[in-house]
Design a protein that fits this description.
single chain, mainly alpha, Herpes Virus-1, 2 domains, two-stranded antiparallel sheet, elongated
Amino acid sequence: MRTEFLGKHCPVCRGTFKENDNVVVCPVCGTPHHRACYEKENKCGVEEYHAQGFEWNGYLPDEERPVENQEKAEETAEVKIEPNDLEFTDFFTAMNDTKKGEDGVSMKELTAYTSTSLYHYTTAFQLMRAFKRKAYFNICSGFFAPMFQFYRKMDLLGLLLIALTLLPSLLAAVNESFFAENTAIVYIFRLLNIAEQLLLCFFGDYLYYRHAVKQILKIRESYSGDTASDEYYLTLNAAGKPSFLRAIVGTLILAFFASLIIIIPTLNPGI
């Protein structure tokens, strides 16, 4: 007798098979029987299930499958806990994933546009798409702002950050006596500056992600929606490639206005 029959049940007498039992198998569904039981019935004990396509896989049609049921329950529970878990793939798979997400772009397009720091941004973007996360730590985005934003071609955000950075100095230059008499205001501005840097550390990648999606959709329009050609991905790569020149220009802009603010009081001593 085959070892896989040991401990299984005969569909006629419901007894379990033992090592020395004489067993025959139904030629249609493969269900094992005691030879005596099969000859007594002169048919398969589960013949009524043949029309339904039943094939014996260790259990009779009406038998419980506790292990299988438990596994299914665990799989179902896992899917309920993280319904989007299957959308998070390994780094190399994600780089070539052409399936579009809810934002309308694919991971392949995003990695092509990102151009550099692929592992960091591929991981960050997958988490944002699969788990709806907006926070992913990037120290450069916060403590090297606004140069980092210019480097990543987010020029409008870079200019906004320059304005926010220089605002306290501009107010102090315009009304120096007010700030001298209200030192608490100075500390508030410093705390706000630190808060701005921390927020950019945690949410800067999400801002870059939204920027990348917007730019990719614009470029796709110029290709009439054709996202299969190598030329399209080369264009994405060139458009998103970081720019040291932009970072240098951003630094010069910041330095220029900072110097201008310093000399404002000397230009008009009455201020």
